[in-house]
Amino acid sequence: MIETPGREQLTDLLAQQWEAIALLVTDLDEKAWRRTSPLPGWTLFDVVAHVIGTESWLLGETPPPHDPLRPKTDVRTLPHVRNEVAVLNEIWVDRLRPLSGKRLLALFDETTERRRAALAAMDDDAWQASTVSPVGQVPYGRFMRVRLFDCWMHELDLADGIGRSVPEGGGRAEAAFAELTIGLGRAVVKGAKAPDGSLITLDLTGPVTRQVHVAVAGGRGSVLDEVSEEPTTVIRLDSGLFARLRGGRTTADRHPGEVAVEGDTALGERLVHNLAFTI
């Protein structure tokens, strides 16, 4: 069972994450802001606009009105829009696109500062209150771990789009990683078609170093903290590649020689090619 960090700790991690994003894009010129990102249909500008949109929504705000002088896009027709959360995301991104990159960054700083203040003002009852989130009806604090994960992944998107390296370990990554591993059972059973009795170990070699074990029984995959028997399959790769595969930012075929599979190699290869998930 992976615990959600406490209110003060998670609020601090979110503040650090927003600062990391701002630092990463602070020197982009207007042309660089419009470079493509690893996310389908989104530029670097759009990634930051998406974060602004979600944090603004959490502040109780709605997207700016559509500029009647701009063509109106039916965001539901976009190929990467697959659910209602994605629809709202796209509306926010579309409405912010007329801004300059400099103005977008100023809005990002202003919005995240207000979010820090709002989180700091919450009491424990509000932190534990049940709320709607992309992972269902959960305590507000659990939702904020999802927010940390989302923003952390988008930092990687921005870094990859810009062509810069950023630290991918530490407290923010450790907390965010919980969202990458919590649903692995579905990928093992539905994606990799692992039969009952399978035991798969993902050996992440760093900078987030851990072993994740998934056992299959009764047609369901369960993530275990530790195991006492030899795994059916061991998959070794670095945590950065794992995060990008789980987030659907890349595919295993684009990284030959970076993933090692031992044991039932066919099962391991199927899993490596079916890790991607969407919140």
TrEMBL record:
Residue span(s) of domain SCP2: 197-271
Domain Mycothiol-dependent maleylpyruvate isomerase metal-binding: 14-159
InterPro entries reported for this sequence: DinB/YfiT-like, Maleyloyr_isom, MDMPI_metal-binding, SCP2_sterol-bd_dom
Domain of life: Bacteria
Molecular function per GO: metal ion binding
This protein's name: Uncharacterized protein (TIGR03083 family)
Organism encoding this protein: Nocardia fluminea
Database matches in Gene3D superfamilies: dinb family like domain (1.20.120.450)
